[in-house]
Amino acid sequence: GAAITVGRLAVNAVMAGCRPEYFPIVLAAFEAMADPRFPFLQTVTTSYPGGTLVLVSGPLAREIGIDSGGGCMGPGFRANATIGRTVSLVLLDVCRALPGQADLAAQGSPAKFTYCFAENDEASPWEPLHTERYDAGTTCVYVGKCEGPHQAMDYLGNTPETILGSIASTATSLGSNNAYQPGDLVVALCPHHARVIASAGWSKDDVRRYLFERTRNPRELLRDRGLVPIWPKWMQELDDVPVVARPEDIIVVVAGGPGPQSGTILPWGIGPAVLRPVTLADGRPARRIEEFRRKT
Question: What are 6-29's pLDDT values in tens digits?
Fold first, then answer.
């Protein structure tokens, strides 16, 4: 029942080591979590081990140094680490989602400590997420309750089908929530895999459609295990059950550096992720961090 105020966000951002220029991303992330579609209370009390993913796409990410290249989901980048850590600290400090008390995660995971990276739009052969959903000058944040990234390695695959087949296999684990509760699936393609796929003439929509057909589990394998299914009516009679409800629920981004290592990020599934633009106080999309500075 505690109020998450801008002041409380600022205090936790300081404790996390956030620089002032990172704070608009923190604000946008919590504005996304305040969206009525986002089941906030359940995300902080669930037994699910995942963290709160803050995926940033757009020019502000580059301006403030949110890393999108080699190792972007790992250590070594202050903006990534402290933005994600601010989110986690607010849940602990303001919401009192303490492990074993209000936070009922059975084991938890490193994703609950910090989980933030940017899309590598400069290495993408396609339109990046922010341009797809808004425009080239708008930065957006995608916020969802997600597992940590699952390696989707393929050194030898040289066609879209082989690479995406490897990725599909990582998205259909019988122990994952989305086998029983479809949710947004984030596919973070490394630049190498993205180039191979795009050079064959495939668009992002082609990738989504292909994965939608192949990220499925036989109904027999799902019976009497996992969770009580929460499937749309049309899924309930299928022999092979998809892990997403529609191709549009597959979020395709390019992230990382050299090497044929992509990542599949599996969702919690109870309630959607939310995409939100980074805006100024008057609601206009922010084009530069300088616009947030107080005028004197």
Answer: 999 999 999 999 999 999 999 999
* Cα distance between residue 191 and residue 149, in whole Å: 16
Dihedral Cα 264, 265, 271, 277, nearest 10 deg: -100
Dig out the tokens for 100 from the structure: 């074993």
pLDDT digits (tens, 9 = 90+) for 175-187: 999 999 999 999 9
Characterize 81-104 residue by residue with b for buried, 16 or more Cβ atoms within 10 angstroms of its Cβ, and e for exposed: bbbbbbbbbbbbebbebeeeeebe
Short-list 172, 128, 131, 133, CA closest to 150: 172
pTM given for the model: 0.95
Q: Burial code of 267-282, b = ≥16 C-beta within 10 A, e = fewer? A: bbbbbbbbbbbbbeee
